[in-house]
Amino acid sequence: MTAYIIRRLLYAIPILIGVNLITFVLFFVVNSPDDMARMQLGDKRVTETAIESWKQAHGYAKPLLYNPEAAGIGRLTETIFFEKSIRLFIFDFGSSDTGRDIGHDIAQRMWPSLAIAVPVLLVGLAFNISYALLIVFFRATYIDFASVVLLVAMMSVSGLFYIIGGQFLLSKLFHLVPISGYDTGLQAWKFLILPVIIGVISGIGAGTRWYRTLFLEEISRDYVRTARAKGLSESRVLFGHVLKNALIPILTGVVVVLPLLFMGSLISESFFGIPGLGSYTIDAINSQDFAIVRAMVFLGAVLYIVGLILTDLSYTFVDPRVRLA
């Protein structure tokens, strides 16, 4: 198992280096520090002196890759590449263009994101799997046909419709929950319940159809016919055999999502005024704060790679034969 984990970690290193290099090229070569200064200063006729002052104040005045004026190792370390990209590997995100500590903001804002994402994941997973098993139990009947039509219709509706519709129905019309905002402590639940409900409902169409396809594929296999021949009930076949043998593709979808829960939902958090990482990224894009955007892109890549590694590890518990792959 240890060798398996080390091998997967070694696979992740070149991927992360590649993501870091691509991010550096996009943010500092394609879009140079001079371009960033002009966008931040907001004046097409801005002077070179103003540009240099902005670059000095935000740490963009140094050379990109090599500093010939520095001595020794400083020729490599006193560069934008080292200070803005290499330090990301030790999760030193630095300061935003407005002077805020990005690492501190991320540590504060990840909790509201998790407060929404974790319930949506758990409740949605339980509901979608249960509904998919119910459809498979009544497969080739009117219940199956009507459910598929309903799921396709739900998939075809934009997520914005669920958000706006939920805000109008539950907040503006019935006044059951606040339309937006956030609070700390136990009072946060009244602000989170609507985003969670909408998050679960908006994912039913795609999620249930995915699980239905998995279960229909498993239920046609030979071991299922053998289980029925032994006299097992349909419910025991579904929950004891079909669900168990479909765990690997289920884990593929679930475990990869787990690290990305920290990133929050860009749309939901913005519409509901939740101070999470999703709204943090949107605000940074709108204000053209490239330091925050760059940090969030790198963090997202790290979390996605962690998710892939966790997926591989989860396979070894469901099917030990994977360890030999």
Layout of helices and strands:
Elements (H helix, E strand, L loop, with lengths): L1 H29 L2 H9 L6 H11 L15 H4 L2 H5 L17 H36 L4 H15 L2 H15 L15 H31 L2 H8 L4 H12 L1 H14 L5 H7 L4 H10 L3 H29 L7
Describe this structure in words.
With 325 residues, the protein is an all-alpha fold. It has a domain at 118-286: MetI-like (MetI-like fold). It is built from 15 helices and no strands. Helix 13 crosses helix 14 (277-286). The model has no long low-confidence stretch (mean pLDDT 87).
Mean pLDDT: 87
Q: Approximately how much helix is present in the residues?
A: over 70%
**In the CATH hierarchy, what is the architecture of the domain at 118-286 at level 2?**
Orthogonal Bundle
Number of helices: 15
Spatial separation of the terminal alpha carbons: 12 Å
Which key phrases capture this entry?
single chain, 325 residues, mainly alpha, MetI-like fold, 15 helices, 72% helix, globular
Summarize the structure.
This protein is mostly helical and 325 residues long. The protein contains 15 helices and no strands.
